[in-house]
Amino acid sequence: MNPISCCRPIRQHSRLVLLLLLLGPALPMDVVKADAVDPNANPLRPIDTSSPRSTFQGFMDNMSLAHGLYFDTLFDYLKSGELYPKSATLSDRHMAFMSTQEAAERTLDLSELPPAMAAESSRRLVIQLREVLDRLELPPPEAIPDAKAMTAADQTRWALPDTEIRIAKVEKGPRAGEFLFDAETVSRIPDFYEKVKHLPNRTGATADWYDWYTRQPIALAYMLRTVIPPRWLLEMPVWTRAILLNQPIWRWVGLMAVSGLAGLVVLGCFRLTRNIPHGNWRRLLRPVSVMVASPVTAFVLSDILRVS
């Protein structure tokens, strides 16, 4: 089997940025536009997780808002024709997007995820879960039990009809008493996504969001936005977005470049110690170089290249 495979034919992605420009005005009505975000809204207000209904609805609402912020900001920049986005607008929308998506992430029970991978994994999982839900027939909000109904029925969990997607009451720990998508559901979200991704998106609200998220160097473009025009990175050749061993080729190139650079820094420090007379500095330089290079490399791989 050819190791290079794509979720969809690469040809569909050859003009992805152009399609975004063309489809921007036709966003589905249930996608929240970035301009509709209340600038005075409390960014610290958490999602109500007192019942399956509030958790489910809070997740859906926040992901709709996050999707609107994500793509509306992108549309505005690409349609502007400017090389560099406006810093103030981009910064405000980025903060609003991160706050909104992080709120959605807190509806997941992440207790069984490795701590080192929890941040990046949760970003992917909430997008996958929203795309899964958008391909299913969902019950009306009033059909999902609220706190009163759960207490009356003496139930601690609720399952989305005809699925194994469950929201359960956390029994212990700092979030005890909250209703979250349980740990088993969280661990199976990637499998659920693979099983339903071929189905039509019922609302069109988040169609291809995960595909875009995994293929495009969005975080890299944002981090380098004042140095390299983001549109240059978003319009890289199609072959750079082909999937090789579950990662796009551009990410493999970045991984090798970052790892190689970190290795050269450490190697350079080791060689430098040869020219330093015996003493404390010589003994400290080698371990310090490793201690500095390791977390910096981990940050770049996780938060910028988003390797997971």
Explained architecture:
The structure is a single chain. The chain is mainly alpha-helical. The protein has two domains: about 10-235, no CATH class; about 240-308. Helix content is about 55%, strand content about 5%. The protein is built from eleven helices and six strands. The protein has helices spanning about 15-25, 50-80, 85-105, 115-135, 145-155, 185-195, 210-215, 220-225, 230-235, 250-270, 280-305, and strands at about 5, 155-160, 165-170, 180, 245, 245-250. The strands form two sheets. It has a three-stranded antiparallel sheet with strand order 1-5-6. The protein has a three-stranded antiparallel sheet with strand order 2-3-4. Strand 2 (about 155-160) and strand 3 form a beta hairpin. Helix 2 (about 50-80) runs antiparallel to helix 3 (about 85-105). The protein is globular, with a radius of gyration of 22 Å. Residues about 1-30 have low confidence and may be disordered.
Helix-strand layout with pairing:
Blueprint: E1 4-5, H1 16-23, H2 52-80, H3 87-105, H4 115-133, H5 147-153, E2 157-159, E3 166-169, E4 179-181, H6 183-196, H7 209-215, H8 218-223, H9 230-234, E5 243-244, E6 247-248, H10 249-272, H11 280-304
Antiparallel strand pairs: 1-5, 2-3, 3-4, 5-6
Helix pairs in contact: 2-3, 3-4, 4-6, 4-7, 10-11
Q: Helices and strands: which structural class? A: mainly alpha
Give the neighbour order of strands across the main sheet.
Answer: 1-5-6
Unreliable stretches? 1-32
Number of domains: 2
Distance between the termini: 23 Å
Q: Indicate the overall shape.
A: globular
Radius of gyration: 22 Å
Determine the strand fraction and express it as a percent band: 5-15%
Kindly report the average pLDDT value: 80
**Main sheet record:** 3 strands, antiparallel
Helix content: 40-55%
Number of strands: 6
Number of helices: 11
Topology pattern, helix = H, strand = E: EHHHHHEEEHHHHEEHH
